[in-house]
Design a protein that fits this description.
Number of domains: 2
Order of helices and strands: HHHHHHHHHHHHHHHHHHHHHHHHH
Helix content: 55-70%
Radius of gyration: 25 Å
Distance between the termini: 20 Å
Structural class: mainly alpha
């Protein structure tokens, strides 16, 4: 009898897929074969379907394009750049703009974000770059919304993004010429690929895999984030749905592609087959300013003759100045590339001499990083690290717009009430996600995997960024917008799941023969 209901053409069912007849994501027992309950029969003429309506009345209706909500949501994310009068910048923005334009590889930053920017700004204007970032964010959140709330309208995205633009750091990340936005988006795409693959079309899956690979390659902290957080959530995958082994193996593609790209570029540009050929310089700075590294330099410099030794008495007070000050010891010792040849030996001796002291310092830095996530870190003017690149590589009208912006004149300051709101909403989001995770796990809802992934990303990001580089607000603000987002989606998703009863078509559960794609 079910075979009579199979449509002649594949209806694109938003948020549904092969798991629909497995009970995955809804916490309901699998129906016996042929048991249709009271599920409604779709009309004979089947166009694009979306499953039951949000009220659970079982009525089918034609799906509408999500393009308009995505465009409107993306526009909302750009309000910080609008009030500033120009895309937001950070100290690193100059390097990211110039690498692709001037055809060089910086020692401290991968080139892939620079390559992303080039075809968008074309050395004319940087506005298209942040427009693209906002669109990528809005589209990713649309896919997440559709996965967790397949029965609600695509327009639900607009109030969701409107709330996030006011109550989180997301718009400030989307409006900035930096790859920081991609840290949070990477966590979401990994969650979709690992726990919601069957709700994605083939094109969407390929897109998210490639997008994830790109995001991993844009920042040195992203690959260790993936390598640490994904294995921790893999044990949940078999519990939360079918095809666990297949989806897990397919998840290897993004990090593998990113690693191949990074190694190829570093081999061609730096003549080192390495993922981060000079990344040990950041670790060196951290170990020195944690104490053990400085003790090793003081103890061994008389006979080791490292490049930093002649400047031992002239080290600045903080690690950032050690790394970036033009007249600092790193530059005077020959630069990061030369110091990198000795950095591993210094770090190794420090860890052997004082492992407990360094561990305590790392844990203290992680704790400080977890507490530091204020929005707007680095919104001051950057006259020496950004302005020269804008003036040299972009036309006069672009330079004039940049120079007239609030940030370039040190007039862009976030009010205290907004900072307090962001912090409060982020902490409430964490608490709600922690409270809902056990509920989602009991119901074997795919939401559980995505929640676990996002919650684990918080301390792991703090470990990588704060523990190995040094605590900064902007490092943790990259991911602290995730808990409020997921809390806003989890509450209605679990409420719909709780109302589901056997024998009734509910959001995310479709008649099996209609939910399957041909060949699935």
């Amino acid at each position: 009898m079910m075979n009579d209901l199979v449509p002649t053409g594949p209806p694109p069912l938003e948020g549904l897929g092969r798991e629909a007849d497995q009970g995955w994501g809804e916490g309901l027992p699998r129906r016996a074969a042929g048991d249709l309950g009271t599920a409604p029969t779709p009309p004979p003429s089947l166009g694009p379907l979306r499953g039951p309506n949000p009220q659970g009345e079982g009525e089918y209706h034609v799906a509408r394009s999500p393009l308009a909500p995505i465009l409107l949501g993306a526009a909302l994310l750009l309000w910080p750049a609008t009030i500033n009068g120009y895309p937001l910048v950070f100290s690193d923005t100059g390097t990211y703009l110039s690498q692709a334009i001037q055809h060089y590889l910086g020692w401290d930053r991968p080139v892939f974000y620079s390559l992303f920017l080039l075809p968008l700004h074309l050395t004319l204007t940087t506005w298209p770059a942040i427009v693209a970032q906002a669109l990528l964010a809005a589209h990713t959140l649309h896919l997440l919304r559709r996965t967790l709330l397949p029965s609600v309208s695509a327009w639900w995205l607009v109030p969701l993004l409107a709330a996030l633009t006011l109550a989180s750091a997301l718009p400030w990340l989307a409006s900035q010429l930096m790859p920081d936005l991609f840290t949070g988006l990477l966590v979401l795409t990994l969650g979709l690929l690992l726990f919601a693959a069957s709700s994605l079309s083939q094109r969407e899956y390929i897109w998210l895999s490639g997008f994830s690979a790109f995001m991993i390659a844009t920042h040195q902290s992203h690959l260790p984030l993936v390598l640490l957080v994904v294995p921790l959530v893999l044990p949940l995958r078999p519990r939360l749905g079918p095809d666990a082994l297949r989806d897990t193996l397919r998840m290897l593609a993004p990090p593998v592609l990113a690693c191949v790209a990074l190694i190829d570029v570093n081999l061609a540009g730096h003549h080192r087959a390495s993922l981060a050929p000079f990344g040990n310089v950041f670790v060196l700075a951290r170990v020195i300013y944690d104490g053990p590294g400085m003790h090793v330099l003081e103890r061994d410099c008389p006979h080791a003759h490292w490049r930093l030794c002649p400047y031992l008495g002239e080290f600045p007070a903080i690690a950032d100045e050690f790394l970036w000050r033009p007249d600092g010891p790193l530059v005077r010792a020959g630069g990061a590339k030369l110091v990198s040849t000795e950095a591993t030996a210094i770090v190794a001796r420090a860890l052997v001499a004082e492992p407990i002291a360094e561990l305590r310092a790392v844990l203290a830095n992680v704790a400080r990083q977890l507490a530091r996530f204020a929005t707007g870190d680095g919104l001051e003017a950057w006259p020496t690290t950004v302005t020269p690149w804008i003036l040299r590589d972009f036309p006069r009208f672009e330079a004039d717009t940049y120079l007239a912006a609030r940030q370039a004149n040190d007039l862009l300051v976030l009010p205290a009430w907004l900072l307090t709101l962001h912090r409060t909403v982020a902490l409430i989001g964490v608490a709600v996600c922690c409270a809902l995770l056990p509920v989602a796990l009991r119901r074997r809802h795919r939401l559980a995997g995505i929640l676990a992934l996002a919650l684990l990303a918080l301390p792991i990001n703090a470990l990588i960024a704060g523990g190995l580089s040094g605590p900064h607000d902007r490092y943790q603000s990259r991911v602290m917008w995730l808990p409020p987002l997921l809390a806003a989606l989890a509450i209605p998703a679990l409420a719909i799941s709780a109302r589901a009863i056997p024998g009734r078509a509910m959001p995310g559960r479709e008649i099996p023969a209609l939910a399957r794609r041909p060949g699935a």
